[in-house]
């Protein structure tokens, strides 16, 4: 699944010289947590999110450091904090270093970017043009709308080969396991050294097409002490 399949195409955008209060009202009235900020030509210049409005003079929530942190803060940092909390214009408060997505990015790529950069949303750019926005909520909605794929009528031997192959691909599965498949139902026997590996092997089997019931008879044993 690609970004273009899940992104929000209806954008609520704002110009950079709009008053911060008006921007907050737009976010509240539209039930959204961020606005894309565009110039007169519609090109993206930034994003204004709830996080950008967290520390505001009007709310008495300006950034306040302890006195000893103030000793180490540069004048540049202190001035930037003041502008962020006191300016009335969106351009002074918005985030300008924006990480964007392409409509052809996979959801896996987007999820990794969200996690790596600790962000919740990304504008979607195609040929230099803003065409949408993708958020963490979009990924959750995509997950909720997925349907269970119909299981093909594979033979037991085919199912066993597929499970063996999938387990062999995993770096954590270093020990042999016995897989028995009968009428699509799977029985797994063998030993592992922790509960996480036991559960992971069960999940591999459950996610294999054609599998019905999975009986996990793997035993967790203490890791042997190797001779020095």
From TrEMBL:
Stretches assigned to the CBS domain: 7-63, 94-151
Swiss-Prot/TrEMBL keywords: CBS domain
Pfam families attached to this UniProt entry: BON (PF04972), CBS (PF00571)
Range of residues in the leader sequence: none
The BON domain, residue ranges: 155-222
Record-given protein name: CBS domain protein
Organism, scientific name: Afipia felis ATCC 53690
Upper taxonomic lineage: Bacteria, Pseudomonadati, Pseudomonadota, Alphaproteobacteria, Hyphomicrobiales
């Amino acid at each position: 699944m690609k970004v273009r399949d899940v992104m929000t195409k209806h954008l609520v955008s704002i110009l950079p010289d709009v008053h911060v209060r008006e921007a907050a009202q737009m976010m509240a009235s539209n039930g959204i947590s961020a606005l894309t900020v565009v110039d007169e030509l519609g090109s993206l210049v930034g994003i204004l999110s709830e996080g950008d409005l967290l520390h505001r003079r009007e709310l008495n929530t300006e950034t306040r450091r302890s006195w000893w942190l103030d000793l180490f803060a540069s004048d540049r940092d202190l001035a930037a904090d003041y502008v962020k909390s006191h300016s009335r214009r969106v351009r002074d408060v918005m985030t300008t270093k924006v990480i964007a997505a392409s409509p052809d990015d996979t959801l896996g790529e987007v999820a990794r970017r969200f996690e790596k950069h600790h962000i919740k949303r990304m504008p979607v750019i195609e040929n230099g043009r803003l065409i949408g926005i993708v958020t963490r909520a979009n990924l959750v909605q995509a997950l909720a709308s997925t349907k269970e794929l119909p299981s093909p009528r594979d033979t037991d031997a085919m199912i066993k080969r597929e499970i063996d192959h999938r387990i062999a691909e995993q770096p954590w599965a270093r020990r042999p396991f016995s897989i028995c498949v009968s009428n699509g139902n799977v029985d797994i026997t063998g030993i592992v050294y922790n509960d996480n590996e036991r559960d992971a092997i069960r999940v591999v089997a459950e996610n294999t097409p054609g599998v019905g019931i999975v009986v996990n008879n793997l035993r967790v044993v203490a890791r042997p002490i190797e001779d020095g």
